[in-house]
Amino acid sequence: MPREQGRLVGAGSFRVDSKRAAEVLRERQLADSFWRPALWVRCAAACGASTFEIKRTATGMTIRFDGRPIPPAVLEQPFASLVDGQPDAAERWFGWALLHTAVERMRVSAASGRGADRASYAYPTDGSTRAGGRAPGDDTVIEVRWGMFGQVLMSAPPGWILGVYSFPNLGLEWTADPAPFPITCKEVGASFSQAPWERRPRREAAVTAAGRRRLRVAGPVRKACLRLSTLGTVVHRTTLRAFALPLEVDVDDPDLSVDASLASAVRDEAFEAASAAGRTAAVRYALAFLARHEKAMALTGGLLLKEPALRWQWVIEFGLARGDEGAIPTAAGLKRLLMALRGRSGDRLRVVRCAESVKVLREAARLSLSTPEADGEDPVRTALWRTGLFFSTAGRPLSLLELTGGLEGLRPWKQFHPPTWREAEAHWVLSPLDTVYLRKRFPERRGLVR
Asked: Edge-to-edge, what's the strand order for the sheet holding 130-131?
């Protein structure tokens, strides 16, 4: 039996009750301390922006970014995308950002589009929209005005403090550090710029990309951490307690979802995948760092053998006090030694950097290593056991594994100058901190530190 045909009796559309939608959606979301411009950073990232600028004035703020324009229909009904589950991330984040910008005592307007498609609207705090006049330009521009806040000119509401005069800029560093585009903040008489990861000049850092996911590993640092971000803003932080080296790991993944607070990541499959990608990148970076350090140790060992001045530079890096176990030069003699380094700044820098790495790696080994057998399943711990952290009297890097392996003839040599060629190779104790470290790390192996 054929299906009965229906008859169209009318057609139409419905509009969202903007005021009620705004009231409901604002409930139980952003805390007052959340840096509100970060929502516009997400919107800009979803639009594929390449620049982002925040300009602070005496009575408000202007946010400007390029990329794909916001459609006029979305400008007219910005909260509809939040109600009907709009899959377009740019339109959705435009709605969320505007929702938490057009609040009490704030006057907000937005303009976007190119040529004849450019439109502008004003957004009263009741959730309604009002068409604006012709707005020049091609970028998306958000105008936020709050006048005098707290009876003080130039002050800003909670969550809108730009902080150009404070360094570092806490809003950028804490929330929008992973932004994939440069961010410029301007206040009256001051400015601050943040480059994306890929353009930051840092010696010990690696930035890679896997599809739409961006990863950055830096360090060693003081405190190991893993940060997950989506669309250029941090949504999860945790300490990497079980990792052998103290590294700073960042993963910016547009597939991550945020919970109802808009500030924290949802712990779903995308969350687990991003976390796993960050840990994998950390292992790869750590192994490469230890390999580079081993090469630097071999080069530095040769320099220390040849140059007494560089030897003293090494001692200075670990502390000058040597007790009665080595000849301490006079102030004039030390000055002559260090003056000898003039014209050899490259060698001196190599020694200083190598010493810095040794101090960090010794501390990492102290905190994370157990025994070679117990650490055998961990590739980073295994490599750390085998990495040179000391020198032999031949200038050869010595690892903790070698020092604790009981090799005959490898005994401490506590003189400033290396032994003659007739002497057997020994552990060269250039700094008293070598003895202190080994005594604490291996109290049962007194032969290492006698």
From this structure: 130-131, 119-123, 107-112, 140-145, 60-65, 52-57, 183-187, 190-194
Instruction: Give the SS3 label for residue 143.
Output: strand
Q: What is the pLDDT of residue 323?
A: 43
Distance CA 357, CA 350 (A): 11
Structure tokens given for 406: 């009981």
Give which of 27, 17, 131, 141 is closest to 79, Cα–Cα: 17
Alpha-carbon distances of 192 from 153, 167, 229, 244, rounded to whole Å: 21, 9, 22, 35
Which pLDDT score, from 0 to 100, does residue 33 have? Answer: 74
Instruction: Let me know if domain 18-194 sits in CATH 3.30.565.10.
Output: yes
Question: What is the distance between the alpha carbons of residues 324 and 326, in angstroms, rounded to a whole number?
Answer: 6
> What ranges do the domains of the chain cover?
18-194, 199-284, 286-448
**pTM score, whole prediction:** 0.82
Phi, psi torsion values for 111, nearest 5 degrees:
-135, 140
Q: Which residues of the chain have pLDDT under 50?
A: 1-14, 151, 153-154, 164-168, 321-327, 343, 407-409
Give the percent of the chain with pLDDT over 70.
78
Asked if 391 and 434 touch (Cβ cutoff 8 Å), the reply is: no
397, 301 Cβ separation under 8 angstroms: yes
Beta bridge partners of residue 209, listed in sequence order: 214
pLDDT digit string, tens, across residues 309-354: 888 889 888 875 444 344 455 555 555 555 555 545 788 889 999 9
Strand extents, DSSP E, 231-382: 233-239, 248-252
Q: For 41, list phi and psi in degrees, rounded to 5.
A: -60, -45
